[in-house]
């Protein structure tokens, strides 16, 4: 049996700037609780104006995790949080029963023409937390555990793996790690979780002898160790967890176990019943007909 269960190619998308989308995919809808995976940029934005800004928009039923390789973004939400995120840090926003947020390119990033580059994911909240009160948490880079060995640099972003435990809140058994490998370096990814994915952000990598192209996602076979070998300097994101306890429906920015809950959220956004972001007057209009 092959160590690789699926190989997923990126799909180009645009959320105010270009992204490569890996999840959801036709081959697999989720990996553990991860139901959405975007590789953003690198992208530079006009020195003046709002190009690249993501205007206020709503979420339900999920937790978003933003992680940057370079640049910065400014988060604002309907709870009143205003938080700049920079490389190596984590912004985690649990939407629960409903939250609104914006993500904007800071003025200094525009002026300096610094590329904005990173990963944004959604984790479906478990049934018991799906309607929780919304929450926001910021974790600076120095708060996240790291591991270094010959040719291997690893930062654990969420959950427990590689003998490390992250302080980032995990609503279900899961893990996510940012890994850099020197050319020729190897790392064994153990079968600690039933569902695991390996995303290659840059460089060249072999998984159990099979080459993984940059920008592609490998979904691994459960119960098997996965030896990772860097053919060149490589940067990858590994992640996974326990399977979801049932199907999730995704429509626009909403994730739910029931279609009816999404219809309620659509109506709430269309009629202005979501709490707005303080100080923000723009918003993304609903993408459906009234």
Automatic annotation (TrEMBL):
Pfam families to which the protein is assigned, alphabetical: Pirin, Pirin_C
Keyword Cytoplasm: no
The record's free-text note on cofactor binding: Binds 1 Fe cation per subunit.
Cofactor: Fe cation
Coiled-coil regions, chain positions: none
Domain of life: Bacteria
GO molecular function: metal ion binding
Residues noted as binding Fe cation in the record, renumbered to the chain: 57, 59, 101, 103
Domain called Pirin N-terminal: residue spans: 18-123
Domain (Pirin C-terminal) ranges: 177-274
Keywords assigned by UniProt, alphabetized: Iron, Metal-binding
Entry similarity comment: Belongs to the pirin family.
Name used for this protein in its record: Pirin domain protein
């Amino acid at each position: 049996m092959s160590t690789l269960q699926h190989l997923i190619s990126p799909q180009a998308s645009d959320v105010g700037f270009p992204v490569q989308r890996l999840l959801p995919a036709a081959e697999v809808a989720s990996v553990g609780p991860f139901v959405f995976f975007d590789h953003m940029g690198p992208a530079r934005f006009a020195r003046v104006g709002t190009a690249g800004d993501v205007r206020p928009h709503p979420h339900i039923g999920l937790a978003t995790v933003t992680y940057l390789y370079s640049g910065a973004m400014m988060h604002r939400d309907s709870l009143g949080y205003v938080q700049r995120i920079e490389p190596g840090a984590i912004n985690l926003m649990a939407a629960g029963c409903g939250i609104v947020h914006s993500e904007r390119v800071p003025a200094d990033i525009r002026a300096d023409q610094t590329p904005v580059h990173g990963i944004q994911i959604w984790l479906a909240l478990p049934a018991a937390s799906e309607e929780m009160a919304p929450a926001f948490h910021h974790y600076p880079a120095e708060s996240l555990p790291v591991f270094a060995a010959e040719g291997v640099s690893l930062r654990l972003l969420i959950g427990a793996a590689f003998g490390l435990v992250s302080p980032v809140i995990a609503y279900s058994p899961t893990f996510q790690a940012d890994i850099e490998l020197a050319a020729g370096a190897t790392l064994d990814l153990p079968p600690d979780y039933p569902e695991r994915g390996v995303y290659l952000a840059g460089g060249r990598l072999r998984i159990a002898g099979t080459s993984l192209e940059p920008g592609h996602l490998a979904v691994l076979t459960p119960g098997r160790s996965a030896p990772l070998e860097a053919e060149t300097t490589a940067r990858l994101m590994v992640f996974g967890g326990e399977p979801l306890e049932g199907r999730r429906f995704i429509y626009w920015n909403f994730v739910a176990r029931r279609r009816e809950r999404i219809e309620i959220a659509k109506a709430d956004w269309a009629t202005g019943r979501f709490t707005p972001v303080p100080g923000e007057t723009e918003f993304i209009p609903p993408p459906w007909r009234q």
